[in-house]
């Protein structure tokens, strides 16, 4: 309902509001997916941003939005959803 009150299209980040290192994110995905293979990093490529943090201040200010769960729980639930619905995703 709140999003309908915004007059013009603007980007609004939705996320946990907490910073995470890319390596830590990969480690969590590997764990939740129960992946037992090797993760290889290509050191010949630029490092880019080793961390991510979405600024969710616009969502709070314009929509009154706050995350309802932490990042780990959301990621775990997302992985579980895909595991249970993989056939519908193809």
Q: Please tell me what the overall shape is.
A: extended
Helix and strand sequence: EHEHH
Question: Unreliable segments (pLDDT under 50, ≥5 consecutive)?
Answer: none
Please give the CATH class. Alpha Beta
Description of the molecule:
By secondary structure, the protein is mostly helical. It has a single domain, classed as UDP-galactose 4-epimerase, domain 1 (Alpha-Beta Complex), CATH 3.90.25.10. 38% of the residues lie in helices and 4% in strands. It contains three helices and two strands. The protein has helices at residues 22-33, 57-63, 71-85, and strands at 20-21, 51-52. A two-stranded antiparallel sheet has the order 1-2. Helix 1 (22-33) packs across helix 3 (71-85). The longest helix has 15 residues, at 71-85.
């Amino acid at each position: 309902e709140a999003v309908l009150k915004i007059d013009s299209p603007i980007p609004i980040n939705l996320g946990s509001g907490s910073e995470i290192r890319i390596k830590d994110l990969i480690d969590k995905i590997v764990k939740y997916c129960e992946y037992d293979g090797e993760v290889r990093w290509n050191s010949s490529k630029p490092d880019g941003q080793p961390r991510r943090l979405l600024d969710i201040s616009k969502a709070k200010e314009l929509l009154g939005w706050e995350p309802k769960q932490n990042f780990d729980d959301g990621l775990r639930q997302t992985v579980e959803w895909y595991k249970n619905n993989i056939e519908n995703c193809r």
